[in-house]
Amino acid sequence: MSVDTVITVGVVATIAVLAVAFGLGILRILRSETNAERAVVGDLVYFASIGMLAAAGLVFHSAVVQDVALLAAFLGILATVALSRILTRGER
Prior knowledge:
Layout: H1 3-31, H2 35-59, H3 63-87
Helix pairs in contact: 1-2, 2-3
């Protein structure tokens, strides 16, 4: 096996694990009772999708996809902080 084949298999396995996490997260969002729980699982789903995007960028050797994934991750962190402030009504 060549190095490229091993890397591709590893990336595909990573995408599969993240897809399972994504699917279970969606199910958990549908069954959750509190807004805080939905927010936490929503972050899991969001960052799992970013991970799948970044892994796909590795498979297709695309620097643009990697840049988009980094930008989306940065915006996701900002959204997480903003949502936590909303849920706690601005308390620290």
